[in-house]
C-alpha cells in the first residue's frame, strides 16, 4: 500500500527512483510520481496510472538532479488523479513531500493553514505536510542550527496518524529528511550514495546494508553521511543491519510471474526456515528462548494475524493444543484489537506477519502487551515494525515475497509454527518423545515432499481449464483440512476474482448445500484418514446435485465419481496443510492465467496493508 523510494548520491536520481517504484509495484497503487532537486529548484513529475507512464512524461529525460524522492499512491483521501498524486509541494515550492499512511487530523491542520493564508490544490491529507513544514520554517526557527530538520520535526509534532515521509528542501539541496510513525521505511547505505524505500526488495540491488528507523526517529541524509535523531532532535547512533537476501531473489528468474516462482521456491523456503533448528537433539532457536517455568504459567495461547497469516495460525492450532496441552485461540487482528480481549500475563500471544508491517496486527500486538501478555512476532522481514514491538521475534526464511498472493510465506509460517509447538512441548514435557521425534523427522522430509507435490501440474491445469469460467466455487474440509480450505478459497478469490467460500464439510447440510446445483465446482481436501469417509459422504451429496468435484488427498482414493483426484505425499496429519495447499495454490494460479488476469498484482489488493 503506497510505496516510497528516495535517492541521494552522485548519479542521476530519476532512473533510480523510477526503477525503485517499479520494484514496489506489487504493494498496490493507482498513481506515481517523483521529485528531484534541479538547478532551478524542485521539479515534480507525476500522474495517475502505472509507474511506466512516468517515462512518457514531457521533460522526464531532462532531469539531472542527484537528489530525489518518489512515490506510488494508493488513494485514501481523494480519487486517483494527477493533482492527488505525490509528491506534494508547499505553496512557495520550497518543500516537496511524499507520504505513506494517513494523517487523521488533516481537516484541522488544513483549516489552520488556510487561516494563515495557505491554499490547497489537492484533496489529500498529505498536502498539509509540506505547508506545515513551510509554516514552521518561516515562523520561529531562526535560532535553530538545522532549520530544515527542525521544521520537519515541528510539523511532525502536529501530525496525528501514521506516516512515513521523505522531504526535500529547495534551500538545502544536498540533504533530505525522512521520518516514520507506524509506517514502514528503510534506509539503504551505499558508498557515496544512500537509498530510501518502503521495503527492502526495491533497493536490494544497490545495497545489503540497511538502517531501520523506529517511530519518530529522524534521518538527515546527504550522499556521504546519515545523521539520526530522536524525537527531541538529539543525535543517536543506529546500527547498520546486513540483509542476507540477494537481489536475484527479488527477480522473476525466468518465470512468467512472481507467484509461480514463489510457489516453486517453497521447498527451499521451508528448508531455510527449518535451518539448523531440527536434529536429534532438542530444538534451540538462535535468538530466542523461553523458560519451562514461564511456559508452565501459560493458560492460553492466542495466535493473531490477518488473511493468509491468520490461516497459518488456524493450520497449526491443533499442533499447539495436542502437543502442549494449552488451549489456543486464533483471532483476526482487526477483531482482536477492538474487542477488549481476555488477555493477561498468563496469556502468550503469537503474532504472524509476513511483511511485519500490517497495521491491524501491530495494533493488536500493542494491545496484548499493554494487558501484560508476552508477545512473539513471526515475520519474514528482518527488522520490520512488528519484530521491534514484540518481546521475542522469530523469522521465517522465505526470502522476499513479491506476489501479492502469499504462498511461500504461508508454508514457511506453518513450518515455523509447528517447530515452535514442538519446542514448547519439549520444554513442557507434555508429549511423548517418540511423537516429537517422528514429527521432527517428518518436518525434515517436507521439502522433498513439497517438491513431489509440485510435480502433478497437468491434472491441476486440466481441472482449472474445465472450470475457469465459473463464477462460484466451494472448498470443503474437516479439521485441519478446513483450515486449508479457507486458505485455498482466499487464494482463488484474490487472483481469479471468482467468488468462493470455504466450509467445514459437516456444515454443508446446515445451509450451504442450498447453493449446490448443476455445474457448481466443489473442491475437497481429505488428509485425515479418520475423517476421509465422512468427507467423501459430503462430496457424494454435492455430486448428486450436479457439482463438479476436485479432491486433494494423501489417501488411496481412486473414485470415478470425482472429476479429478490430486494425490499428494503422505505426512503427519498435523503437517498436512504444508502439502495440501500446494496443488490449490497452483489451481488458483492457472485459473487466473486462463482468465488473462494480472496474477502478481490483483485488483484492489496491496501486499503490505499498512493502514487500517
Ligand atoms: C493473502 C495475503 C494477505 C496477507 C495479509 C497479512 O494472499 O497475502 O491476506 O496474508 O494481508 O499480511 P502480513 O502477513 O504481511 O501481515
UniProtKB/TrEMBL annotation:
Residues annotated as domain Glutamine amidotransferase type-2: 2-224
Subcellular location, principal: cytoplasm
Active-site residues from the entry: 2, 607
Gene Ontology cellular component terms for the protein in this record: cytosol
PANTHER family documented for this protein: GLUCOSAMINE--FRUCTOSE-6-PHOSPHATE AMINOTRANSFERASE, ISOMERIZING (PTHR10937), GLUTAMINE--FRUCTOSE-6-PHOSPHATE TRANSAMINASE (ISOMERIZING) (PTHR10937:SF0)
Function comment: Catalyzes the first step in hexosamine metabolism, converting fructose-6P into glucosamine-6P using glutamine as a nitrogen source.
Subunit (UniProt): Homodimer.
Name this protein carries in UniProt: Glutamine--fructose-6-phosphate aminotransferase [isomerizing]
Highest classification ranks of the organism: Bacteria, Bacillati, Bacillota, Clostridia, Candidatus Merdicola
Gene this protein is translated from: glmS
Amino acid at each position: 500500500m503506497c510505496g516510497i523510494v528516495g535517492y541521494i548520491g552522485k548519479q542521476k536520481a530519476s532512473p533510480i527512483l523510477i526503477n525503485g517504484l517499479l520494484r514496489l509495484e506489487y504493494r498496490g497503487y493507482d498513481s506515481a510520481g517523483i521529485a528531484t532537486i534541479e538547478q532551478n529548484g524542485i521539479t515534480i513529475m507525476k500522474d495517475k496510472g502505472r509507474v511506466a507512464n512516468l517515462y512518457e512524461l514531457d521533460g522526464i529525460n531532462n532531469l539531472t538532479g542527484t537528489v530525489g524522492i518518489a512515490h506510488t499512491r494508493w488513494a485514501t483521501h481523494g480519487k486517483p488523479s494527477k493533482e492527488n498524486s505525490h509528491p506534494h509541494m508547499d505553496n512557495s515550492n520550497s518543500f516537496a513531500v511524499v507520504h505513506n499512511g494517513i494523517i487523521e487530523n488533516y481537516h484541522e491542520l488544513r483549516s489552520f493553514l488556510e487561516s494563515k493564508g495557505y491554499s490547497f490544490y489537492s484533496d489529500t491529507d498529505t498536502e498539509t505536510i509540506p505547508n506545515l513544514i513551510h509554516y514552521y520554517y518561516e515562523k520561529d526557527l531562526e535560532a535553530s542550527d538545522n532549520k530544515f530538520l527542525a521544521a520537519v520535526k515541528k510539523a511532525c509534532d502536529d501530525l496525528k496518524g501514521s506516516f512515513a515521509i521523505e522531504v526535500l528542501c529547495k534551500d538545502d539541496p544536498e540533504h533530505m529528511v525522512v521520518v516514520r510513525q507506524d509506517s514502514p521505511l528503510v534506509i539503504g547505505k551505499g558508498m557515496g550514495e544512500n537509498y530510501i524505500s518502503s521495503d527492502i526488495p526495491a533497493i536490494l540491488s544497490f545495497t545489503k546494508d540497511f538502517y531501520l528507523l523506529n517511530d519518530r526517529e529522524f534521518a538527515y541524509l546527504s550522499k556521504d553521511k546519515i545523521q539520526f535523531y530522536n524525537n527531541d532532535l538529539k543525535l543517536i547512533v543506529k546500527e547498520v543491519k546486513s540483509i542476507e537476501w540477494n537481489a536475484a531473489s527479488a527477480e522473476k528468474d525466468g518465470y512468467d510471474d512472481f507467484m509461480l516462482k514463489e510457489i516453486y521456491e517453497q521447498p527451499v523456503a521451508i528448508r531455510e526456515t527449518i535451518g539448523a533448528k531440527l536434529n536429534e537433539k532438542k530444538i534451540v532457536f538462535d535468538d530466542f528462548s523461553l523458560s519451562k517455568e514461564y511456559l508452565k504459567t501459560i493458560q492460553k495461547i492466542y495466535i493473531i494475524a490477518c488473511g493468509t497469516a491468520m490461516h497459518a495460525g488456524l493450520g497449526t492450532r491443533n499442533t499447539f493444543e495436542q502437543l502442549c496441552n494449552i488451549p489456543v485461540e486464533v483471532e483476526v487482528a482487526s477483531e482482536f484489537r477492538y474487542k477488549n480481549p481476555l488477555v493477561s500475563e498468563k496469556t502468550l500471544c503469537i503474532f504472524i506477519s509476513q511483511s511485519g508491517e500490517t497495521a491491524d496486527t501491530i495494533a493488536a500486538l500493542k494491545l496484548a502487551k499493554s494487558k501484560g501478555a508476552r508477545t512473539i512476532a513471526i515475520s519474514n522481514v528482518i527488522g520490520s515494525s512488528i519484530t521491534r514491538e514484540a518481546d521475542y521475534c522469530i523469522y521465517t526464511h522465505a526470502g522476499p515475497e513479491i506476489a501479492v498472493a502469499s504462498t511461500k510465506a504461508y508454508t514457511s509460517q506453518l513450518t515455523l509454527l509447528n517447530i515452535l509447538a514442538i519446542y514448547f512441548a519439549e520444554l513442557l514435557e507434555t508429549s511423548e518423545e517418540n511423537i516429537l521425534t517422528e514429527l521432527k523427522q517428518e518436518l525434515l522430509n517436507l521439502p522433498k515432499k513439497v517438491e513431489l507435490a509440485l510435480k502433478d501440474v497437468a491434472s491441476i491445469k486440466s481441472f482449472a481449464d474445465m472450470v475457469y469460467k465459473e463464477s462460484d466455487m466451494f472448498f470443503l474440509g474437516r479439521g485441519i483440512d478446513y483450515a486449508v480450505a479457507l486458505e485455498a478459497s482466499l487464494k482463488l478469490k484474490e487472483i481469479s476474482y471468482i467468488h468462493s467460500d470455504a466450509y467445514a464439510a459437516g456444515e454443508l447440510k446446515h445451509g450451504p448445500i442450498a447453493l449446490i446445483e448443476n455445474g457448481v465446482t466443489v473442491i475437497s481436501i481429505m488428509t485425515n484418514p479418520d475423517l476421509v469417509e465422512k468427507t467423501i459422504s459430503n462430496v457424494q451429496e454435492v455430486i448428486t446435485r450436479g457439482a463438479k468435484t476436485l479432491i486433494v488427498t494423501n489417501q488411496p482414493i481412486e473414485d470415478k465419481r470425482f472429476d479429478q483426484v490430486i494425490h499428494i505425499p503422505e505426512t503427519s496429519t498435523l503437517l498436512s496443510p504444508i502439502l495440501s495447499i500446494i496443488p490449490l495454490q497452483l489451481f488458483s494460479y492457472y485459473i487466473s492465467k486462463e482468465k488473462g488476469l494480472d496474477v502478481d498484482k490483483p485488483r484492489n489488493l496491496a501486499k503490505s496493508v499498512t493502514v487500517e
